[in-house]
Amino acid sequence: MQPPAPLPELARPLRVLFINDTSRNGGPGRTLYYILKFADASRMHKTVLLPRPGVVSELLSEKGIADELLFESDLVENIVEPWDRAIEREDFEVAPPKKLLRAAGNVFRGGRGFFRLAKLVREGRYDAIFCNGTTACFAGGGLSAVTGVPSLWHCFYTSVGAPIRPLHSALAASTGVASICCVSRATTVLYPHCPEKVHLTHDAIDVVEFAAGNTEPRIREEFGWPADAIVVGSQGRILPKKGYFEFVRAAHKSMTMLDEGLRRRVRFIAFGDTPQDVVPDHLVLDEADRMLDMGFAEDVQRILGGIPGMGAAGGAGGGQQALKTVQFILFSATVPGWVSSMARTHMTNPATLDHV
């Protein structure tokens, strides 16, 4: 492999405006942190723009990796978000008239914020705009069109809404958007009309941060697991496309292949900030008697209790509602007391099929 060509000398550090369209802690914020961390400070002046203070700004400030940290309250993250705070999950459930009112107000807010950003780009004499996130890409593409400052899109979304898809395509193909960095092959499908701009660049983390000795172990202590427990985990939004169902199937297959000693030590865990995005309509519990033998009775009960409509029969959210909302199918070679009790607790008038 040939070593990379040396970078050209610069008369002064490039002034780059990094627009991150969310102040919440998630993929975009964490990705921006690592980009800034490894950017050559001698070649780049890094200004970060966020919608509001939050965990992202606290992380960047704590690590001291941004030269400037600015906030633009009219940088709209979601079209139906409230006008005075960040969007929350409950905001997606408000009545349609209220959503329309918020959307109309956010169109005005977005336009007002855009003009302030255009002024910032001109007066700040920025050389480039780095756009991190969906709204950021729209904003950066528009800013490039009106200011002439080139933008780079960092794309980790795989679709855009039909009403704004033509604008997204036009901005992506415009001369102001100089490059589009896609974090996965799935995101590249948005740009068939300008493939020459697309670069597949996977996201990464600094593995040194998570090396033994650089982090304080917490999971075993928080869950009360023994010190010799082997923890296998994943984190992120709880969505089918993120591979969580495959993770569960792999965990089950792994447990059936391990000997008794290892099975008692291994713990599988999935951390996610939006488990509500997976709404169960059926639940299949296979080899229930084996789950009891392997020591998973308490875990199964906790999972069942956390599923809407799967509470105790006769109580709120259980019994009759469970029959309406969640189909529960249970397979067991034998029927010990625990299996019978679980069926009585979480099922209403269950049908029993004996197959020999």
Question: What is the typical, i.e. mean, pLDDT?
Answer: 84
Shape: globular
Separation of the first and last Cα atoms = 62 Å
Computed over alpha carbons, the radius of gyration is 25 Å
- Summing up helix and strand content along with how strands pair, one would put the structural category as alpha/beta
Task: Please summarize the sheet with the most strands.
Answer: 7 strands, parallel
Q: What is the percent of helical residues?
A: 25-40%
Low-confidence stretches: 311-324
Strand order of the largest sheet: 3-2-1-4-5-6-7
The strand count comes to 11
Order of helices and strands: EHEHEHEHEHEEHEHHEEHHHEH
Compact overview of the structure:
By secondary structure, the protein is α/β, with parallel strands linked by helices. The chain contains twelve helices and eleven strands.
